[in-house]
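step: validate -> pass
step: tokenize input -> pass
step: predict -> running
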Amino acid sequence: MAIYLLDNSLKIEIAYEESDSGYDDNIRVQIIEECPEEEKLFLHDETNIYLTPEQANDLARLLDEAAQASRMNL
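step: predict -> pass
step: emit ->
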């Protein structure tokens, strides 16, 4: 699954990395930037961050809490 941000110049894809099933951190968060060099947030066009299931759950919970707080203030 992927989400596109910043006028579709930033793609964030999250997936279970089956080839890394032997590792605790087997959930891949891949960030791909397609924008001019001066607009880049990262040093490379592609950045991968690997999370444990617990870290992924924490991230999902924090995103949900922030979204709920935002909705309450609209």
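step: describe -> Residues 7 and 35 are 10 Å apart (CA to CA).
step: cleanup -> pass
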